[in-house]
Amino acid sequence: MLRMLLGEQPRHNNGLLEEAIESMVKTTRLLQKEMEKHQDPTHDFRKLEIWTRGLIVSLDELEQSWNAAKHFSQSVKSGYIDDMSIQEQGEYQRYVYFYKNGFIRVFSILDKLGTVLNELYDLHTSKVKAHFSYFTALRQFKFLKAHGELASELEAIKERYKIPLNTLRKRRNAEIHYMNSEMQDDLWQRHQGLSDKIELEDIDQHLEDLKQGVDMVCRSLAASYRYTNRIWAEKGVRV
Question: In the chain, pLDDT over 90 holds for what percent of residues?
Answer without folding.
Answer: 69
